[in-house]
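Hi V.,

Quick status before I head out on leave. The structure for the redesign project is tokenized and pasted below; the design run finished overnight.
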């Protein structure tokens, strides 16, 4: 069968460097007995190394040209290829217990993939792979950094994040206009937040909607213009200065002063 051509509308940039593919596969070595789901295998450059490791592997591929290619070149995958949009899958239909996520993620949906991982955070002990360098830096950024934002806080609440290495645009077909990076997310020991989880997400997103303003200004959509809570010093800060623990504290303050809370 002919080589699969990368498609721009799917955000495809096929990795050509086998050493990098092998290094990405190695990120899951600490989770040897945990099943793996690979997102967007394309022509299987990463897949082949996951197969070598004899992992219980399922791949999800939206590209109709890639599916028959994978079936032909990787017969051990037959019956384990899901032709679908990963973002639309109910992963509980595939796995009853824990599973890892890996991939050379399409640039155009990489952030959405990590938000989906959060939905299954108690089932996904590790998520690793390659994505646009800018997004990888945002995920791994610490409080005070220019790229620290919504994705940083929400993921770091539940995962320890390692920025592993940068990848040149020259090792792809076609070469993207930006550099890439490989990161690894390992589930931390946190069982629950010290606040309401749903409100925590709302507070984080509301804070970063106006990231250049102090929280006294950015929290107005939740607390109004003249809330008594604004006397707390935390509202003098900008959102990028707050750690996960700080956002937990802020969430509890917001909860106490929300309309209907009795204050």
């Amino acid at each position: 069968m002919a080589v699969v051509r990368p498609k721009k509308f799917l955000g495809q940039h096929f990795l050509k460097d086998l050493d990098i593919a092998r290094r990405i596969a190695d990120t899951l070595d600490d989770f040897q007995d945990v099943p793996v789901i690979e997102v967007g295998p394309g022509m299987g450059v990463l897949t082949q190394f996951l197969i070598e490791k004899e992992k219980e592997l399922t791949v999800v591929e939206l590209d109709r040209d890639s599916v028959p290619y994978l079936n032909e070149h990787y017969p051990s995958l037959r019956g384990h290829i899901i032709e679908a949009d990963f973002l639309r899958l109910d992963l509980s239909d595939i796995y009853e217990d824990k599973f890892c996520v890996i991939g050379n993620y399409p640039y155009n949906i990489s952030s959405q993939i990590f938000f989906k991982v959060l939905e299954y955070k108690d089932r996904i002990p590790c998520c690793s792979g390659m994505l646009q360098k800018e997004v990888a830096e945002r995920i791994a950024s610490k409080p005070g950094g220019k790229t620290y934002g919504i994705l940083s806080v929400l993921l770091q609440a539940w995962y320890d994040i390692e920025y592993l290495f940068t990848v040149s645009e020259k090792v792809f077909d076609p070469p993207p206009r930006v550099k890439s990076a490989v990161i690894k997310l390992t589930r931390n020991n946190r069982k629950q937040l010290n606040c309401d989880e749903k409100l925590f997400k709302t507070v984080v997103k509301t804070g970063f909607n106006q990231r250049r303003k102090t929280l006294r200004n950015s929290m107005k959509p939740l607390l109004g213009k003249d809330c008594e809570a604004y006397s707390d010093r935390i509202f003098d800060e900008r959102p990028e200065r707050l750690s996960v623990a700080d956002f937990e504290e802020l969430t509890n303050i917001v909860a106490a002063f929300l309309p209907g809370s009795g204050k």
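Above is the designed sequence. The domain at 8-187 is CATH 3.40.50.150 (Rossmann fold).

G. will cover questions while I'm gone.

Best,
W.
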